[in-house]
Each structure stands twice: as structure tokens, then as C-alpha cells.
Fold this sequence. Notes:
The chain is α+β, with helices and mostly antiparallel strands.
Amino acid sequence: MAGEVMLESFLDACPGIYFVTNAEGVISMANQEAALAFGEHAAEGRSLLESVHPEDRGSFQALWTRLPDDGKALRAVSRLRGTDGQYQAYSFSARRMKQSPEIHAVLLPAAPKPPPSEKDPEKVLRVLLDNLELAVTVLDRNGVCTWNEGRSLITSGLGPNFQLGKNLPEAYANDPVIREGSLGALRGEDKYYVVEAHGVLWENWFVPAKDENGEIIGAICLSLDKSESKRATQELQNRIDVIERQQEVIRNLETPILEVWDRVVTLPMVGVVDSARAARVMDDLLASVCRLGARYAIIDLTGVDIVDTATAAHLLNLVSALRLLGAEGIITGIRPNVAQTVVSLGLDLSRMITCANLREGLRLCIRRMHAQAQADAAVGALV
């Protein structure tokens, strides 16, 4: 009697959860810790299977029924529902007593699984493969693909294990970049290359795989899908091209060079003329004079409000450059404030031809060309 009391006291004081059941899991005895953990489900006559998670119930029941009667314990982990209605993993050890249908089991809360870390590389790799646009390919020592997975294979439409079973050097015999990348890694070399294959732009790193003795047993390739990056780069370049074409149109509109008479061109300028614009004007006007064989170039400043000293110097240099090309530069439509800026430079303006407006400038060109034509005719008559 004293022994039974001592045993009961021991079981109630035991920090572990203790059950006695039959082969079907029906409880015949449970200690105080079991009652605290599972409440009424730990009562005599209840089935322990009622507390087991539905997904674990089949394996739990199979273990319970195959317990040997030689007294050896079997250990496993299952999820059981506690008094709070939540499932928790328990590590248990169960033993069937010799020549007895009773099964004695001790349960302890299982330690929580640690988060993926350097000690759990497979889970880290799985997280990367499932969430990033990459793929990993594993080759054996003969170059045959034994594993090929990654999110980029799915998003590109190729599917997981797309390369599985293929001999990569042979499959890409006509692609020297991929072939040399795989063969180089199998020789023990690190290879990096970017290649377009199967409609996808891949950035690849191929490295040899070695055993603990340093012997090459295959190769591993990490591939990044760069197609989206390429598309974004191309879109950006297309936008830049459009902007450059628009800027070219604007430049042509802001300094249009017109042939208003035979061998007479005019450049009407509007707005603010800064040094950069004056430099573009010089380049465009000199090129047009050469292309058209112009004798006169009229630079009309009627629409120009402000000219800084540097710009005025550019205009004077432009007139000098025109003379070197055998053409005459004529400035028309100078406003009073622009005239003051030009004078303040202290430059020699004696050889600069100016007219009040564009009409007067064109009239001057026509008179001079008419006079030149008469002079040429007179010389011809004398000859």
C-alpha cells in the first residue's frame, strides 16, 4: 500500500507527462502533468489519439500498434492539442511492457526548430530559390545535370529541372560560351559569363564542386535572370534617344537657317542668346554657308532682348569666320541695349556691316550682288 502511494506521489511530482494506454491508445492512467497539459482529454477512458494533430495521427497510430513487446522503447515526435486549443510538438518515448497490453509513454515538449542559419543551409537555399530570380544547376563529374531548380525557371516558362539529365557540354555544343563555362568548371576553374539562351538573358557563375579530399566531383552554376534589367535599360535608352531627337528639333527650331535669296542665307534669332547657343549658331551657320555656297549671311537679332559680353564676342568672331569662308556677315535688328553691350567690349566694329532690319539687310545684299553682276558683265565685254 505504501508502495502504491509512493508511486502515485512520484508520478504526480514527475515534470514529464506520463500516460499508460492500451494498443489502441485508450488511456488507463495519467499523471498530474498530463492533466495540466491536456485537461479532460487526459482522463481515464479517453483516447490519446483525440489530442494528436490530424496530419500526425496516422503515423502516431502506426507507431503505437507496432511497439514490440520486448520492452524496447521507441521514440518519435508528434503534435498534440493542449488545453488552449493550440497544437504543440512533443517528443515522446513509448514502451510496451513484456507479456502485457499496456503501453507506458513519457512526453516532453519538443525544442522549437531553429530558424534557418548557417547550420541549416538547405532551408536557406530553398528560401533563396523560391523568392529570387535565380536558378541553381548541379552537374556531376561527367557534365550531366543532376539538379536544376529556381524561381527564374518558373517565371521564364522553362519549368523546374529543365536541364535535368542533360549533358550540358553536349547539349550546348553549338554555344561556345555555355560549353566552355561548364567544361572550365569541371576542370577546376571559376567561370563567369553572360549569355542569352531560351529567350532569357542569364548572368552565370560556374564553380567546381569538390569532395573533402579536394577532388573535383562536379560543378555548380548560379544563374540570375537579367531579362528585366535588360528591358529596363533598353527602355531608358529609348527614352534618352527620344529626348535627344527632341533636343535636336528644338535646336533646329531656335536657330533656323533660311535661304531667302540666291546665295543669301538668314538666321533669325529669338529669345536669350547665351554663349552655348552662340557657339551652336556659329557651327550651324558656317556649315550652311559652305553647303549652299552662300555669298551673304544675315544674322537678324530683332527678337533678341539680351546679349552678354561673351555672346557679343562670339557674334563678332562669327562675322570674321564668315569672311574667311568668302562670305559677308551682316547684322540686322540690333536693339539699343544689345548695341550698348557690343560697344562696351571696346572691339573694332569698323568692318562690321549692320542694318536696321532684315528687309534693309536683304536689300543691301541684292544691291551688292546686282552691282557685282554689272561689274562682271563689264569686264566680260572688255575681254
